[in-house]
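Fold this sequence, please.
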Amino acid sequence: MQKDLSNYRKSYEKSALTEGTIKENPLEQFQKWFYEVEATDGLDEPNAMTISTIGLDGFPKNRVVLMKKYTHEGFIFYTNYLSEKGKALEKNPSVCLSFFWHTLERQVIIKGNAEKIAENLSDGYFESRPLGSQLGAIVSDQSEVIESRELLEAKLIALEKELEGKEIERPEHWGGYLVRPISLEFWQGRPNRLHDRIRYTLQKDYNWKIERLQP
């Protein structure tokens, strides 16, 4: 089985990324781009990002998660600490995040280190989640093998009955991570594959070095 995709081509012509227009701080540049993406029609979940970790088996693994907050410190997402992802982060907190916003022909690639956020912050976010999402975080032993979908749904029904009318607390094995960036690369598609790539690298004095990379 095969399919030749060599004729899949697109000319990127929507924008440019120049040293004269970028922000000195990459988090401010990210915010600028994110606002522009939010204002663009045709893109669901602009906060969807790919996170890459190094697993316990030594292999890298990518998956899409939802960024729930960004600040001057970095990027926050939530997950099960006992999942495959959580175990990988416990052993090796070095990660890579990437956003691809096809409507504006843009990518952002972020290298950084993940750390658990304060428990009260995870509590606050957990309380804000819909009831179904709260129950899902409790009932699922994320990344563990289960015999069938029916068994998972039966576990949920049993948990709903057990917790009916009770206040639902965040499980200790579930919470947030903050990824503190050490490098951010902004990619803007350009014609003839001569794309703009601007990289910010954190220096020892906590200033950012800005460089243009060849496409």
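The helical segments are 26-38, 84-91, 119-128, 131-139, 149-163. The chain has a mean pLDDT of 96.
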